[in-house]
Amino acid sequence: MKSVYTIIKKPLFTEKGSHLKESENKILVEVSTDANKLEIKKAIEEIFKVKVEKVATVAVHGKWKKLGRSIGKRPDRKKALITLRKGEKLDFIEGV
Description:
Blueprint: H1 4-7, E1 8-11, H2 15-24, E2 26-31, H3 37-48, E3 52-60, E4 64-67, E5 70-73, E6 77-84
């Protein structure tokens, strides 16, 4: 079994994410690429002590990039859109 701290990588602070957080009580986080929805739900509930209603995931494939003559690929990643139950609230420390 994976550790809950290796499943959740970091919160994503974007304009769309902050709008979803305010209007629909949803949060965006980057998760491990091999984590499934049940593992993500269990990790969020255990780490932050909130109740999760729904988890949606998106696999983002890394782009190929060129710099001069060399070519490289950005890493693949996975994002999770987590819907919290009514009455639940989760605040990350935003910005520095």
